[in-house]
């Protein structure tokens, strides 16, 4: 029996951060042992945000190199660029015919933006492009094209996968056939949102991220900027409300967590000490991966080769799905 399919995408919008790693990448790679894994770079999704040519190109290579530096083996996992799969855009148009406008009105990203505009007394559609409005349809096309069973993502993406399942259900019902696989979102084990330097959700949009592969000196400087309160060194500190500890916890084993907790509660631990502990933990976790990342980023022709081969294999699957839908719907025949 063939394996079930796991698929996820990362947008090339700036540097990949530890929230992306813990929320999506780590789990996706663990799942690639038991699943037929298809992981991609969502460059057309990024186009809603990134309008600078160099940034789009650099971040696209960056996401590809990140996947591989974190352990993706391109001979086992299909790695490709969304824009190399034209069927994505054909399927996206196909799905439009089955997607209620109301479903898009309820999608979080659009709804939040609209609410913010209204709160600021602006036109509700100010700054909303059609790419943002129809974002869930393009994402549904990514997922449905590859016969996806599970989608490892962070909490914020769950609604998009549910919308995808709705649209696929409508199509299967319409043609009275199991044409499309109904996908399920899979959250990482803690299913928690990773918080950023300021305690809000870590996100490129909030400029509060800790990038995965920063040079050690820069990383240390950044960690030292994590927001803490103004308690003095000798004071007893509460690990549970501390931004530094919240991030440390994500990488430390239980013993390490307990040890640092005790130091918080004993007093005499300055914020600089706590931040140094976190810096060392991040270095221990990512230094080897960073080395591999730097090597890959210096070998763009290898990255191009991997993406080219990925595109070819991806198109075999995507064209089969599209042919199935064309046949079932009478389009083009
Ligand atoms: P960003 O919010 O920084 O732009 P993306 O939207 O590109 O990040 O997210 C890529 C993947 O990483 C998604 O699966 C998303 O759910 C996950 N992710 C992003 N930020 C976090 C976070 N702070 N905690 C957990 N998962 C996250
Ligand atoms: N929307 C996802 C994000 O912002 C990226 C993405 C695009 C994706 N297409 C996908 C994730 C398909 C999972 C499956 O992070």
Structural notes for this entry:
It is built from 14 helices and 5 strands. With 333 residues, it is mainly alpha-helical. α4 packs across α8 and α8 packs across α9. The longest helix has 30 residues. Adenosine-5'-diphosphate binds next to α1. The site of tryptophan has 13 residues, from β1 and α8.
Key terms:
333 residues, mainly alpha, 3-stranded parallel sheet, two-stranded parallel ribbon, 14 helices, binds tryptophan
Query: Sheet with the most strands?
Result: 3 strands, parallel
For the largest sheet, list the strands in their spatial order: 1-2-3
State the distance separating the first and last CA atoms: 32 Å
The helix/strand class is mainly alpha
Low-confidence segments, given as residue ranges, are none
Average pLDDT reading: 95
Per the principal axes of the C-alpha atoms, what is the gross shape? globular
Question: What compounds sit in this structure?
Answer: adenosine-5'-diphosphate, tryptophan
Share of helix, binned: 40-55%
Please compute the radius of gyration using only Cα atoms. 22 Å
What is the number of beta strands? Answer: 5
Q: Beta-sheet strand percentage?
A: 5-15%
Order of helices and strands: EHEHHEHHHHHEHEHHHHH
Compute the number of helices. Answer: 14
In short:
With 333 residues, this protein is mainly alpha-helical. 54% of the residues lie in helices and 7% in strands.
């Amino acid at each position: 029996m063939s394996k079930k399919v796991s698929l996820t995408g990362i947008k090339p919008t700036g540097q990949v951060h530890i929230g992306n790693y813990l929320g999506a990448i780590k789990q996706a790679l663990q799942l690639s042992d038991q699943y037929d894994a298809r992981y991609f770079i969502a460059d057309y999704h990024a186009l809603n945000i990134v309008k600078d040519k160099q940034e789009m190109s650099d971040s696209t290579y960056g996401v590809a190199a990140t996947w591989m530096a974190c352990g993706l083996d391109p001979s086992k996992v299909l790695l490709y660029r969304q824009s190399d799969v034209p069927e994505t855009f054909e399927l996206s148009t196909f799905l439009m015919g089955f997607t209620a406008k109301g479903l898009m009105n309820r999608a979080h990203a659009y709804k939040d933006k609209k609410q913010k505009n209204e709160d600021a007394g602006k036109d509700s559609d100010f700054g909303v492009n059609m790419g943002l409005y129809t974002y869930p349809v393009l994402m549904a096309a990514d997922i449905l094209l590859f016969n996806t069973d599970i989608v490892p993502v962070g909490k914020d993406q769950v609604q998009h996968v549910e919308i995808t399942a709705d649209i696929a259900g409508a199509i299967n019902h319409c043609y009275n056939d199991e044409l499309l696989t109904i996908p399920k979102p899979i959250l990482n084990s803690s299913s928690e949102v990773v918080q950023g330097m300021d305690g809000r959700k870590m996100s490129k949009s909030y400029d509060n991220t800790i990038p995965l592969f920063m040079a050690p000196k820069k990383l240390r400087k950044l960690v030292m900027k994590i927001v803490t309160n103004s308690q003095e060194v000798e004071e007893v500190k509460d690990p549970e409300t501390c931004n530094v500890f919240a991030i440390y916890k994500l990488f430390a084993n239980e013993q390490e967590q307990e040890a640092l907790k005790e130091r918080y509660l004993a007093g005499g631990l300055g914020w600089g000490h706590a931040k140094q502990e976190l810096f060392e933990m991040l270095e221990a976790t990512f230094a080897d991966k960073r080395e591999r990342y730097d090597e890959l980023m210096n070998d763009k022709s290898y990255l191009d080769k991997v993406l080219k081969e990925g595109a070819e294999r991806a198109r075999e699957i995507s064209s089969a799905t599209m042919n199935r839908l064309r046949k079932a719907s009478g389009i083009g025949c």
